[in-house]
Amino acid sequence: MDEKREFARFDNPAKKFQDSRVQLTIPGLAEDTVSPVDFGVGGFKLDASKKPEPGAAVACTIQVAGDKIENCNAHVAWVTENESKPGTWIVGLSVNVTGDDQDKLSSMLTDALSEEG
């Protein structure tokens, strides 16, 4: 499969919420704050408690080590059933951050990786 990502992708070194510096609030997809499985400036792979429709628009807040980018526009890029956790879904979330917010998110994620490593 051809790689279509515009931005680098990183595994989340601490996949458990309580250990992770990267957290998302996405009311349309998850009841609680979630920590992504992997992430990049262009989006996140995460477990969701609700099944979204591919292409659905959602709003989210991205928090990295206490710093936030709020009211991000995002859309569901893809969805698969999580066979290891029935009743949950693995979701590819594409976020639309531009300009200063894109630079801020890139810096926040780079800092989070260096602190957790």
Q: Layout of SSEs?
A:
Elements: E1 9-11, E2 22-25, E3 38-40, E4 43-48, E5 57-64, E6 67-81, E7 89-96, H1 99-116
Antiparallel strand pairs: 1-3, 2-5, 3-4, 4-7, 5-6, 6-7
In short, what is this structure?
With 117 residues, this protein is an alpha+beta fold. It is built from one helix and seven strands, in the order E-E-E-E-E-E-E-H.
Structure keywords:
single chain, 117 residues, 7-stranded antiparallel beta sheet, globular
- What kind of assembly state do the chains in view correspond to? single chain
**Number of DSSP helices?**
1
Strand proportion, as a percent range, falls in 35-45%
Secondary structure: helix percent: 10-25%
The low-confidence parts are 14-18
Structural class: alpha+beta
Give the N-terminus to C-terminus distance in angstroms. 29 Å
Strand order of the largest sheet: 1-3-4-7-6-5-2
Mean pLDDT: 81
Shape: globular
| Order of secondary-structure elements | EEEEEEEH
